[in-house]
Design brief:
Distance between the termini: 73 Å
Number of strands: 14
CATH topology of the largest domain: Rossmann fold
Number of domains: 3
Order of helices and strands: EHEHEHEHHHHEHEEHHEHEHEHEHEEHE
Strand content: 15-25%
Shape: elongated
CATH class of the largest domain: Alpha Beta
Length: 418
Amino acid sequence: MAVLTKCLLFGLINNDNTDYELQELKTLVESSGNYEVLGSVTQRRPQPEPRFYLGKGKLEALRDMVKQSSAELVVCDDELTLSQQRNIAGFLETAVTDRTGVILDIFAQRAHTAEGKIQVELARLRYHLPRLSGRGTELSRLGGGIGTRGPGETKLETDRRKVRQRIKELEMELDDITRHRDLTRRWRKQREVPMVSLVGYTNAGKSTIMAALTGSEEVGDPRLFATLDTTGRRVEFPEGGHFVLSDTVGFINKLPHQLVASFQATLMEVKEADLLLHVLDVSTPGIEKRMKTVEKVVAEIDNRPRLELKVYNKVDLLPPVEVERLQTILPEGIMVSAFTGQGIPELLERIQQLLYAEATEITLSIPYSRGDLVNLLYDNSQVLQRKHLPSGIQLQVRGSRTLLGRVLQALNGEVNYE
């Protein structure tokens, strides 16, 4: 049985931070590796103390807890400045990291694809670059712990010039990935394939909803940040037509800006989506704050108005009376359980309604020689009726004006409107 590293947590309680944030930090630390959280110190104050984050009395209390528990690491709920991290480590005589370092460490562990590893390494280097100078002793204490391991990681003692060079190399690799994604998105747009993107707080159940909509038998991973790489899959509507559904990395309160910047290639799926499915876990307290956190990150990616549908997941974990109560106080959306399948057919119907809200319905007469146009319409619109006539195939279809305009142009005006 592995020996767990002893940890202590500390943070502020104010209008922005609550006990919930510290509980979330505890979950993050414990999920990042073999760490045991022994306790925490909190202080009510509007802003961090400039030099030590905590006031003198609370800092001394934290030092006493470190000595009594033999803690090897203390973790702050906010991102510390370089000087704060150095001052606290010197005062406590133990290793110090922060929420950002913990989240980056979890991302490092969860990254499996080449793209994911590039994005995580870039985020970690951007985080560590300003912390390299004059920190040889403190960094050596962190060796092998939270905030120091990960795929493709350069040694923290590497000089700033080499780190900057590595950042440039990674940025060039991400540019190539972005160009490839742009080509794929442009091809989808030309084919008039609607794009729907799942967004939400980490562990809200986005991957399970994706499996339910696509008919996949894959089971969602309950770990935090289990999905780092965008996956696009085709989803068929019962009456014809389809859309591409993409899963994205989960968001979290105080998501490091380094991650948002590094994951731009992945998060472009959010920016280009025709519809966002904002998945929320109704079984966990604090749904309103998690909702605002996700909305804030989405606005940071792209603040244009867009179609959005809130999907309230995990209703199977609540009694019916609580589900009814939430329906009266939460913004309009749809209640589902991706695990049991409850509400999934209704969700698919709602997606169809939203995507085809601006659709046009017409009747087309297509010669038998233009089977390519028939296939195009079946793939990218709703075929409501089909008749075989001596002159060709008559289709009553409902689809986007752009797609139908292309078909009309190809038919040289051979069309009958209803």
